[in-house]
Specification:
Elements: H1 4-9, E1 20-27, E2 35-47, H2 54-58, E3 78-86, E4 93-98, E5 103-112, E6 126-129, E7 134-137, E8 141-152, E9 158-165, H3 173-182
Parallel strand pairs: 1-9
Antiparallel strand pairs: 1-4, 2-3, 2-5, 2-6, 5-8, 6-7
Amino acid sequence: MRWLPLVLLAGCGVSEPGLSVHVTLQVGAPLSAQAASLAIEEVELVPCAVARPWWQALSPVSTAFAHGVEAANATPRRRVSPVLLDLTVAEAQDVAHFAPPPGALCAVKLTFAPSTADARAQGTTLFLEQPSVRQVSTKRYVVTKAFEARALDEGARELEFSLRLEAGQGADGDETLRVMLGTLAL
């Protein structure tokens, strides 16, 4: 009888790999500058709208998901941690990694905002330094890129979203930032 609790707990040690979503961003034609960076403050995976039965909408009981988060105000589909992208390299750069609950995803939302992740570019969203020109922008932009629904479930445990940005240059930092974000594609 003393062993009964151990027998009951024996099944709790089973662990299965979770669901995984990885988001990267690549600069199409890197800038030839002394320093060029773009700050992303937040990345969110947007689930597809699902019609819920009326009785679930009235239920006071919510659903809890046991997934890790990186920040107190993050969720399994949202990462709030600054990422500073180097606009002088062509390789894909990590933006975020998620372990979301199952379901279909329909968009990725990125918030570009001033960052404190780098001493040189501190407090800027865009920092561009060339021998004769220095451009900065402290504007905040939210860009949502929709795509055809992709299911994340037992059949498809991993998804990767690769974003592409063309680095361009405008008359000032704010215009340069608008030009670049206008080229963002999935």
